[in-house]
Amino acid sequence: MKKYCALLLAAVTLILTLMSCSPAGADGGDFNAGYPVSPDELRRYSEELSDGVQTSAQLPAEPPKGKIVYWTASGTVYHLYRDCGHISSAKEVETGTVGMAKNAGIGKFCRTCAKKYAEESSEN
Ligand SMILES: [Zn+2]
């Protein structure tokens, strides 16, 4: 009986050894095919997408009341951050509350700023 157990143990050890050396480990081991883009790249992609595209339901619809936002006369969205990529290079940027932006015909919250704002508020 004791000998049989030892034999079984040896067999299990052998199987485990064979499994750890299976081709799955050899063919590109660390490459994670499920996530070909890094979070940073994903963020860049989402910034390139035009504002207003429904990329995530998690983003806040608008910043808190009374927050100062930024927009350009030619734009269609207002921004919470002056250094937002969409307006950082703009020379003439309007400043005011969300209500003022809406009065100016800018009714949508920049998705990039919304995302950044959502991240910041989740961190704190
Ligand atoms: Zn923005």
Provide a descriptive summary of the structure in words.
By secondary structure, the chain is mainly α. The chain has a domain at 54-124. The protein has five helices and four strands. Strands 1-3 form a two-stranded antiparallel sheet. The longest helix is centred in the N-terminal third of the chain and has 19 residues, at 2-20. It is rod-shaped, with a radius of gyration of 27 Å. The N and C termini lie far apart (62 Å). The mean pLDDT is 78. The structure holds zinc ion.
Considering the chains and any ligands shown, give keywords for the structure.
two-stranded parallel sheet, two-stranded antiparallel sheet, binds zinc ion, 5 helices, mainly alpha
Q: Biggest sheet: strands, sense, closure? A: 2 strands, antiparallel
Helix vs. strand class: mainly alpha
Bound molecules: zinc ion
Strand % is: 5-15%
Radius of gyration, in angstroms, nearest whole number: 27 Å
Quick gist of this model?
The protein is mainly alpha-helical and 124 residues long.
Write the layout of secondary structure elements.
Blueprint: H1 2-20, H2 23-26, H3 39-48, E1 68-71, E2 77-78, E3 94-97, H4 98-103, E4 108-109, H5 111-123
Parallel strand pairs: 2-4
Antiparallel strand pairs: 1-3
